[in-house]
Write a structure and sequence with these properties.
The structure holds two protein chains of two kinds. The longest helix of chain A is centred in the N-terminal third of the chain and has 35 residues. Chain A has 15 helices and no strands. The radius of gyration of chain A is 21 Å and the shape is globular. By secondary structure, chain A is mainly α. Chain A has a single domain, classed as Orthogonal Bundle (ABC transporter involved in vitamin B12 uptake, BtuC). Chain B has a domain of 178 residues: P-loop containing nucleotide triphosphate hydrolases (Rossmann fold, 3-Layer(aba) Sandwich), CATH 3.40.50.300. Chain B is built from nine helices and twelve strands. The longest helix of chain B is centred in the last third of the chain and has 16 residues. The radius of gyration of chain B is 19 Å and the shape is globular. The chains are: A mainly alpha, B alpha/beta. Chains A and B meet through helix 1, helix 2, helix 10 and helix 11 of A and strand 6, helix 3 and helix 4 of B.
Chain lengths: 339, 260
């Protein structure tokens, strides 16, 4: 069939890769643009020339100071955590073979919230709040893993149900702490719960982990493609499914725990970014994972800049913005894919 | 006839397979040579899929050994067994969308290094396999837009792309219309004639009689009958195995089995 032949030559895997290359290049440019906006926008607008001068260390004065010590750490934290959440979400969706999974579905954000709010309630310093969040996140991960993995089986349903139940328990504990908290601490607790990048002064570990996490996941990307086709088929093609699932679970949990520790439980990035990227370039994990990482970073960096500028001087928690954007987008996606 | 000096494609040596405490088969011995087509028959729940997965090395046997090209699965270098045997799973879940070509290319996985991408040669192999399964021009279609029968043929195409020496097929004819049933069975007959071994689970006794060289009949209680197709496919044996009386009708050189 002449028509089929022509269509075949113009499409195929090569064109998929070319298109993905374009998408990745576009995302890198978008990341640069998001950083430029984030560093220059605010109560003190900075011109592009001053921005370059401040970043290269030749600029001086208050502008350079604001950029280097306030805006840059915050932009890097937002970018890194957006990337972490999107990457973790993409991994969890393959692990649970459920397109509606997000990084928090296994109770990680609930555990982190219990730890962080407990620390705030106890009047701890900022460093201890981070430590509480991280310990809580890892505790919830281990609890879910232990309960779901207890009999050695690895069913997605069991993992998912255990995660949902642990998250519900954490939600109850959070509600209890909020109702017991003194007036003065409630705002801080609410900001933490909604996700907020304003307190992120040490963003570099998150960015480093983002690079390490992506580098650790990419060698297994083709195996993840097979895992999405079903366990039996993946095993028959030589994939060590048990080891792969353990890796994805551990990596996804660690990425999420660091993101939640850095900026709180920002919602929807981990759910909708992998979906949006999937719509644009398909579901080949070798392309999806890096593209989702970049897109998540761009989205959270831009959302955080908007959160601190749209109703300035009031700063909105960035999680509120991502949810306001995320809910309609997600409902739209859900309507397109009725299953 | 060309002699194959290689060891048998598949062999079971005193194989006992259990599900929980129930025996699927006890002390099963058989050898599948290149060119043989083995059909596994049995009632629902007799353990045909479990046995097939054990033969594919995905499940441990309770006793005995499965030999793939003369060696137990564990003795092959990791990943190499996927170049020797392929399995068509009973169901093909699709949680995420993918194109038909991407899905067929999955079969090249065992031949690719960790950082390799599929080459144009791999793509040509996939397009040929799709054409064999009557899926020309489907390469760019999204899998969820396919019918049940088209998805089944796509799964078979992905298995063909794997190019193993042993084909293990779990109900390869499910969702297929009459024409494609014959197309698929003819294709595997051709692969067997070219030196492959085929073992499949079927439910159609008459297609079994037409295509099988050997038949393994599971009774669901651990007993089994194995032999050449003509020896196993008798009204007495089949009636006992299925718990339903059958009658044989001679039609030219063929025998047709119909339930009474």
């Amino acid at each position: 069939m002449a028509h089929g032949q022509a269509a075949r030559r113009n499409t195929g895997m090569l064109s998929v890769r070319r298109r993905a290359g374009l998408v990745l290049t576009g995302l890198v440019l978008a990341a640069l643009a998001a950083f430029a906006w984030s560093l220059s926008a605010g109560a003190l607008p900075v011109s592009f020339d001053d921005l370059l001068a401040a970043l290269s260390g030749t600029g001086g004065g208050m502008e350079a100071d604001i950029i280097r010590s306030l805006r840059l750490p915050r932009a890097v934290a937002a970018f890194a955590c957006g990337g972490l959440l999107a990457l973790a979400g993409a991994l969890m969706q393959v692990l649970l073979r459920n397109p509606l999974a997000d990084p928090y579905v296994l109770g990680i954000s609930g555990g982190a919230a219990v730890g962080a709010l407990g620390a705030i309630l106890a009047g701890a310093a900022a460093g201890w709040i981070d430590a509480g969040a991280f310990i809580g996140a890892l505790g919830a991960t281990l609890l879910v893993f232990g309960l779901a993995h207890g009999d050695g089986s690895w069913t997605q349903t069991r993992l998912l149900l255990t995660g949902v139940i642990v998250a519900a328990g954490c939600g109850a504990a959070v509600a209890l702490m909020l109702s017991l908290a003194p007036e003065g601490r409630i705002k801080g607790m609410l900001f933490w719960l909604m996700g907020d990048a304003s307190g992120a002064t040490r963003p570099w570990p998150a960015l480093g982990l983002l690079a390490i996490g992506l580098a650790a996941a990419l060698p297994f990307a083709r195996e993840l493609n097979l895992l999405a086709r079903g366990e039996v088929t993946a095993r028959a093609l030589g994939v060590r499914v048990g080891r792969l699932r353990g890796l994805v679970y551990g990596l996804g949990s660690l990425l999420t725990a660091v993101a939640v520790t850095t900026v709180g439980s920002v919602g929807f990035i981990g759910l909708i970014v992998p979906h949006l990227v999937r719509l644009a370039i398909g579901n080949d994990q070798r392309l999806l994972l890096p593209a989702a990482t970049l897109a998540g970073g761009v989205l959270l960096c831009a959302a955080d800049t908007a959160a601190r500028t749209v109703v300035a001087p009031i700063q909105l928690p960035v999680g509120v913005l991502t949810a306001l954007i995320g809910v309609p987008v997600f409902l739209f996606l859900l309507a397109r894919h009725p299953r | 006839m060309k002699m194959d000096a290689r060891p048998p494609v598949l062999a079971a040596d005193g194989l006992t397979v259990q599900v929980g405490r129930r025996d699927v088969c006890r002390d099963l011995d058989f050898t599948l040579q290149a060119g043989d087509t083995l059909v596994i028959l049995g009632r629902n729940g007799a353990g045909k899929t479990t046995l097939l997965h054990t033969l594919a090395g995905l499940r441990d046997a309770a006793r005995g050994a499965v030999l793939l090209s003369g060696q137990p699965y564990g003795a092959w270098p990791r990943g190499h067994e996927a170049c020797l045997r392929g399995l068509l799973a009973q169901s093909q879940p699709d949680f995420f969308s993918a194109t038909v070509l991407e899905t067929a290319l999955v079969g090249r996985h065992p031949y690719l290094g960790r950082w390799d991408w599929e080459s144009p040669d791999d793509e040509a192999i996939a397009l040929t396999a799709l054409a064999h399964m009557g899926l020309d021009g489907f390469a760019e279609r999204q899998v969820p837009t396919l019918s049940g029968g088209e998805r089944q043929r796509l799964a078979i195409a992905a298995l063909l792309v794997q190019q193993p020496r042993l084909y293990l097929l779990d109900e390869p004819l499910s969702h297929l219309d009459l024409h494609h049933e014959i197309t698929v069975l003819d294709h595997f007959r051709g692969l067997a004639a070219g030196g492959a071994g085929v073992a499949m689970v079927l439910h159609d006794i008459n297609l079994t009689a037409r295509y099988a060289s050997h038949v393994l009949l599971l009774d669901g209680k651990g007993g089994h009958v194995f032999g050449r197709a003509a020896e196993v496919l008798t009204t007495d044996t089949l009636s006992a195995a299925y718990g339903h009386p059958l009658r044989a009708i001679a039609d030219g050189g063929h025998t047709l089995f119909v339930p009474v």
